[in-house]
Structure formats: C-alpha cells, structure tokens
Please model this.
Amino acid sequence: MQTQTKSLETFRKETRQWLEDHCPQSMRIPVSSFEETFMGGRNPEFTSEDQRIWFERMRDRGWTAPDWPQVYGGGGLNQQEYRVLKEEMSLINCRAPLWSFGLMMLGPALLQFGTEKQKKKYLTEIARGEVWWCQGYSEPGAGSDLANLQTRAVDKGDHYEVTGQKVWTSYADKADMIFCLVRTDPNASKHTGISFLLIDMTSKGVSTQPIKLISGKSPFCETFFDRVRVSKENIVGAENYGWTIAKYLLTHERSGIGVVAKSIPLYEKALAFNGLKKGPLPDPVLRAEIARWSIDEEAMKLTLERSYDESKEGKEPGAKSSFFKYYSSELNKRKYELLLSCGGHDALVWGNRYEEGKLARDMCRTKGNSIEGGTSEIQLNIISKHILRLPNK
Amino acid sequence: MALILNEEQQMIRQAAREFFQANAPVSQLRALRDSRDPLGYEPSLWQSMMDMGWHAMLIPEQYGGLGMGLSEMGQVLEESGRTLTSSPLLTTGVLGVSSIVFCHNEQLKSEILPAIADGSVSIALAHEETHTHKSVPESVMAEIDGQAFRLTGKKKFVVDGTNANRLIVTAKEGHRTALFLVPSSAKGVTMTKRIMMDSRYAAEISFDRVLVEPELRLDQGERGQDLLEKILDTGRIALSAELLGIGQEAYDRTLAYLKERKQFGVPIGSFQGLQHRAAHLFCELELCKSLIIKTLNAFDEGKDIRVLASMTKSKLSEVVQHTTNEAIQMFGGIGMTDDEEIGFFMKRARVAQQMFGDANFHIHRFASLKGF
Model:
C-alpha cells in the first residue's frame, strides 16, 4: 500500500511536469462544446497547428485512451492513475486531445465483447484517431421502441448483405465506419434476433442524407444501406447477441477526459441582459424561477458527486443513469426557456447564420435533449421498473 | 468531504431508526392527539432519548455533552421524521443548545449547557412576531433599565413554548438585534397554547416589561443579528433533515400502496400515469438527499452556511410538499380518511415547511445572497 501510494505520487509529479512541458498554451483554454475538439478520421481536420501537436503528443503516449491496454494503442493506466491524469489535466484546463464515438461508445463494447483481432485493429485505430465512427441504432420505425429495428443482415455464407435505413446517425456524412444494430434473425423475438455489426461507410450501397433540425442545422443524417456486402469478421459478439451489447453500452458509455468551459451562471446572464451588475432583477417572478433552477442544478451536480463517491465505495450506479439523463435533460430545457425569457425579443433574432440567432436556435436544439438517447418517458419507465420495481401491466 | 455517511453516522442512523420504529410509531402521535395530552409528547420517550444522549449531541464534551456535529444529529432528526415523533429534540436539543453554544457568553455556557445535558433545563425559541417568518425581530423591544433590560411585546409560533422552562427571546434593542435567555416563569410572561395542524403545540407569548439581567444576554461582543442568523440556519437545516425523513417515509408508503392496491384487476402501480409521477418523485428525493448531506458536512466544517441552508430548506420544503400531496392523491379515498396515517405526514410537513421560512422565503434569500 505504502509503495503504491508513493508511486502514484511519483506518477502525479511526472504527469504534471509532462503536461506542463507538452500542452500548448492555446490547448489550455477550455472548449465551450465538444464540437471544437479534434474528432479524428481518415481525413483529419485540425482547426489549428496547436490542436494537431497536442493530439499527436497525447496519441504517442497512448493518452487519447489512457485506461486502454497499451497493445490496443491505449495508455495502460490503472484507474487510480487515470484519475490522477484527469485531475492534473483539469488543473491546467487541458482540452481533450480527441473526442469520438469510437472512444466513448464502440471502444467499451469492443473491450468487453470484441475478438482479439477486432480489438487490435479497431481499438488501435480509434486511440490513434485514424478512423471516425458513427452510430447506427435508430430507424424510422424504431425510436423509443429500438428493438423493433428492421434493417436486415442476410447470411450469404461468407458475408452478410445489409439492407435498410438508419436515422439520427450523427456525422454519418463525415464518418469512415458505422457500428450498427441489424436484424439477423427475423423469426426470433424482437430482442433476440439482433446483431452488432461494423460497416465501412465507403462500401458500395451506403449513402447518407443530412437532416435539418428546428434549430436550422445539425450533424444528424439518415443513412441508407442497399444490399451492402459486410464481411462476417465484422460482427461483434455472437450472431443474435447484439441487444445485450447495446444494453451494456447504455450503462458503460465512457466519459471523456479534458476540460469543458464552465458555463457562466444563469443569474449572471440574466443580470447582463438587463445591463445590471448586481440584483435584484427587475422581474420578481423570473428572478424566483432562476433561483429555483439554480438550486436544482446545484442539487443535481451534488447528486452526481454523491454517486461518484458511492461508486468509489463499490456501489453500482445501475439504473441511476436513467435518472441522471432524465433530470439533466429537463434542467437544460428549463435553462434555455429561462434564458429566452431573460432575453425578451432580443433573444428571438434568428438571422441567416447560426451565430446570429444562437440563443433562439440553441433553445430549439435543447428540445431534443429529452428525446435523443432515450426519451424522458423511457427513462421514467426504466426508473419505475428497475429502481422502484413497480409492476408491469 | 465525500458525500457519503461515515461509519459512525451510519451506526447512529441505524440505532435511531430502530429506536423510533420500536418506541415512537405514528400511532403514538395519534394517541397523544386524541387524548389532548397536556405536553404533546411522551415524557418516557423523551427520557429514553435523553438516555441515548441525543438531547446533548451538540453540546461540547467539556460541558457534559457528546460533542458531535450536526451531521450526526441530522441522522436522528431524519429518522424521527419517518415516524413523525413528537419530542423537544428540535427545540431544546438543536435550537436551545446551538443558541448557547454559538454565543460568546462564557458564563451562560458553563451554567446552562450542563443543565441541558442533565435534563433540568429545556428551551424554546421565541422569535416570530408576524404570521410569516422574518429574520429580524421588530416588535418585541428591549429597553435598558439600569444594568438590566425590560422586554415588551408579543411572540407567536413558539414551538414547545408552554413546555420549556427557559425561552430564548429575540428583541430589538435600539437598532440592534438582541437575544435573551428568559425563565418561562418570569414575571410579566403570559402564554396561550395553540394546538397546531401537526398535533404539536406552539405558544403565543406576551412580554410585559419582563426584567432580564444583563448576564442573560446571549449576544456579547458580536452582532446579535449574526448570532440569530446562525441559530436560524441551524434550525432550517435541522428541519430540512426532518423533512427528508418525512418525505422518504411518505414516499415509501406510497410506493408500497401502489404495488398492493388493485383496481381494474391490476395493481395501480402498473399504470404509467402513476409510474411516471412516482419516478419523478424518486429523482427529486435523491436531489434532496444530496443537498442534506452536503449541507450537514459544510456546517460541521465551519463554512459559511447561509446559501446552502436556503437552498436546502427551499428544495426540501417544495419536494416534501409535493411528495405528501402525491401520496394522498395516490392513496385515493383512503388517503382522505383520518384512519389512514398518510395524512399525518402532510400535516407535519406543512408545519416544518413553514417554520423559519418556507420555500418562497428561501428562494428569495438565495437570490439575494447570490447577488441577483
């Protein structure tokens, strides 16, 4: 124990020094959203030279995926070291070197269910930022009822032939690969006939179409598969085992590293809209609603902190992720309605460009928070069933 | 500090839970109510609680107490909320003790704290003057009479006022706030007992030129209003801990009822219209738990507690109001009957919500403290 503590302290010292020496100054200004982070891919796009340097230095250390094994391109850190790295990055506001669906979603699934060959190839590519992955889950007829998905993968001996349509595939127009839920057994019950398949977006028969949202833009696409040939090596886990993997991913989605800018408190924005440096805000009702929201937001933050403390004691978060998702989504929607109220008609400007009407457009976008990734109603169903153990009808 | 209970706190909580469930179920409150009990609590129960040392938890060891923090007391209060136990724990054990512990009157500390610990002194806080809570006393006046003071005016909603043998009276002395420890038997003190919604008693007390010796003034060498705010915040946090117990128990009982009560041939808990409301309440109560544990910790770490106290009291008041309302609605007709205990939870919650400022009061206070 003593030596372990000591070596952890050494690791902290060395890490602090290394970050100090290698993180460019401009990469120590937090991003305001993850979209400003380098996302990798076969045709990488860097927004600055510093961004490229920072990514490459972290990549070469395996610290794009610090807790993955080194043989798969990761940093091989244990959980304590990983925590230290995150803390040290936070101290000097380091940005994440890489942000991708591969790191957050596909990686954890492959680590758990992939073959050795798949792990070597795909995890390494992900950690090195060489391939941009997107996610193919939802379909026009399979939203909240995801297991109703109809995209078919027909067994053709040495390969599958995939036909169908996915929707809400973020960045499908930019992605190199897609991880998909497909139906391999149409005669099985709807949860048991699904497989988890990896498909190259450059395959013959794959096409995408962007979706414009009520906010005026979006990274979302529809993705079409027309008799796409996919090697059988590209299935993750056993055939018809896909639903288990999808469920695993729901609770094991990985959180990223790096610092996102602290948002300005809502009440400070409210004061600024009124040209005030201090209170009270002129509208007493709005003031009370902002106070109520601020208290709820702080209570939610404390709840996440408490859950983290409990997990260190060995308590599993379990279905609580549904509670966090539900409450955070609703909080964000409330926040933007309050901001819009604070801004009055000034906040209603839409303009021609997104930046011109950012607040109004962002507010529209928040409506999707309680729909994407499982609607609020689905989260409440999960809480009822798995936490409250209320009976099914 | 981690937002989880330490081992000692878990043990206190477990002991308190077993004690209250065994010795003070809701049926005891009902019996006290129905018999119009003169005290409003069971003296033998209070004696047992004192035997456990709970009345002296917050008294430093040098004065004969247990020297524990509000984090430990919070566990007892939360569990007493689950059974709606009526006792002087809040008034004497939290408000009375804290007032004396926080003040800088050393003589008073060495006299009164051991006397609370041995059970001979009980205290009620006489502060409210109008129909809603205000932090600053305005109508009870303290006039200087030689070295001593004379108190004149009326106090309301003095919880346990008729039972306590000492009163802490807040007053206006010139432009300042002053606090005095007054024997209930002092000449010029008259009380009227009021039975409140929660079957507990509060007094209306009038002071007619009541003589108070200068050594019984609590605020010495400090701003009286600062001392009072600290006492009030302690009470707000303590009430919030009790509210959490009330809310959780009302919720647990409702959840059990949803699984048991059948209509249309199925348990009513299978209806999505009720499931989603129950799930939402679950989330709200989880937020409440986090606020409580954070606030109790911060209090014991000696941090400025004002913002957290108001956040916690407002959130707990709102959530427990909502929870007890939903409880009665989900119990349906049976929830409206006096035979069913769920109504007792709503009634106690309303009193605890109002005491030392309701949700609205603390939402405004939070906004003011945050500067908007």
Summary: Chain B has a mean pLDDT of 97. The two ends of chain B are 29 Å apart (CA to CA). Chain B touches chain A through 39 residues (CB under 8 Å).
